């Protein structure tokens, strides 16, 4: 298997259609948002927060907006007016990326949704949520518009960046040869991932050559692989190298999972799928934690615990509600496994995920 870290990054010329200026950057990258027409205001808010905290005027990165339905002209016009740099792309997701595969038993899927609803699992009855998770697991990087890019940064509606982002995160990904970047981690709800670990283990046992020798499997399994410990990277904020997701290893892994029907018979999320995949298929030293971003996505936020750092980054966040280093987070396990120094400051214990 070709290792993504061995591929030459090269150089790309970027033409900024907004300012008419030409820039040279070592990487080809885009922000990526899966968003509905009804989420316009939430998307505009996210663009505003990112523009205020990340100086994209310096870089001119593009932004891809994807929707399972056609974007309204009013949506497109409003988003375009919010841009100060970079090129926005608006795409409709192909039906085959947002529909039931032929092998799905619809009666069984309906019964399983009803069962999860009785157990009060979040989004238990939602079919669109399942299509979304399947799309984010296996198809977003296959979109035609995404083929011109190597790196992506996922941005959802209604999020906030409450601290300055003084560095180019895409450049950090490229310079370090990282395949995946994240900011918060947490345990997944056990009832939403029934069968996921078993299907994953089966695939990796049948395809041992795909498993990276310096993997971080222990981050997702505290029992030497016998069980999933539910740890996952919160994928609503993630940066990734799409060469990893387009690799034979990841594509075959996704196909194996998809054939089980777990996205529809259970309620598998893209976050645990991405997390298990990078933990087995990637070098553990090529997974990057982006701390101190002040990232907020209801109900959790990151906030630097160091007073001076919060001042330096002009943060507008509440450290007592910091999640990154909370006792229920999986971040400390990641640092221990990666040989990284864990910050000495501990967060308040009073904040818990809803």
Automatic annotation (TrEMBL):
Q: How does it sit in the membrane?
A: Single-pass type II membrane protein
Q: Which UniProt keywords apply?
A: Glycosyltransferase, Signal-anchor, Transferase, Transmembrane
One of this protein's GO BP terms?
Answer: protein N-linked glycosylation
This entry's Gene Ontology molecular function terms read: alpha-1,2-mannosyltransferase activity
Where does the record say this protein resides? Membrane
Xref: InterPro entries: Glyco_trans_15, Nucleotide-diphossugar_trans
Q: Which GO terms describe its cellular component?
A: Golgi apparatus; membrane
Q: State the active site.
A: 238
**Where is this chain primarily localised?**
membrane
Which domain of life, per UniProt? Eukaryota
The text of the family note is:
Belongs to the glycosyltransferase 15 family.
What protein name does the entry list? Glycosyltransferase family 15 protein
Organism listed in the record: Babjeviella inositovora NRRL Y-12698
């Amino acid at each position: 298997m070709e290792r993504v870290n061995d591929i030459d990054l090269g150089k790309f010329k970027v033409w900024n259609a907004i300012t008419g200026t030409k820039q040279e950057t070592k990487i080809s990258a885009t922000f990526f948002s899966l968003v509905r027409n009804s989420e316009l205001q939430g998307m505009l808010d996210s663009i505003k927060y990112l523009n205020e905290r990340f100086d994209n005027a310096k870089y001119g990165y593009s932004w891809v907006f994807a929707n399972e339905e056609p974007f309204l002209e009013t949506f497109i016009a409003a988003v375009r007016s919010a841009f100060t740099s970079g090129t926005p792309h608006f795409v409709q997701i192909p039906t085959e990326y947002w529909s039931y595969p032929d092998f799905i038993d619809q009666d069984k899927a309906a019964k399983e949704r009803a069962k999860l609803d009785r157990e009060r699992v979040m989004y238990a009855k939602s079919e669109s949520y399942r299509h979304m998770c399947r799309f984010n697991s296996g198809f977003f990087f296959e979109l035609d518009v995404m083929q011109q890019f190597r790196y992506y940064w996922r941005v959802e509606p209604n999020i906030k960046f409450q601290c300055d982002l003084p560095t180019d995160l895409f450049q950090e990904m490229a310079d370090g040869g990282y395949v995946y970047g994240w900011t918060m981690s947490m345990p997944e709800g056990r009832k939403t991932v029934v069968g996921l670990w078993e299907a994953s283990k089966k695939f990796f046992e049948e395809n041992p050559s795909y498993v990276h020798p310096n993997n971080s499997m222990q981050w997702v399994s505290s029992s030497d692989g016998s069980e999933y410990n539910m740890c996952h990277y919160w994928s609503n904020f993630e940066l990734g190298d799409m060469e990893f997701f387009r690799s034979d290893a990841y594509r075959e892994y996704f196909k194996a999972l998809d054939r089980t029907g777990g996205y529809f018979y259970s309620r598998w999320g893209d976050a645990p799928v991405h997390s298990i995949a990078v933990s087995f298929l990637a070098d553990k030293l090529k997974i990057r934690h982006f701390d101190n971003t002040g990232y907020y996505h209801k109900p959790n936020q990151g906030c630097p615990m160091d007073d001076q750092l919060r001042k330096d980054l002009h943060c507008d966040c509440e450290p007592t509600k910091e999640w990154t280093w909370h006792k229920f987070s999986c971040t400390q396990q990641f640092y221990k496994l990666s040989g990284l120094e864990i910050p000495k400051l501990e967060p308040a214990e009073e904040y818990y995920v809803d």
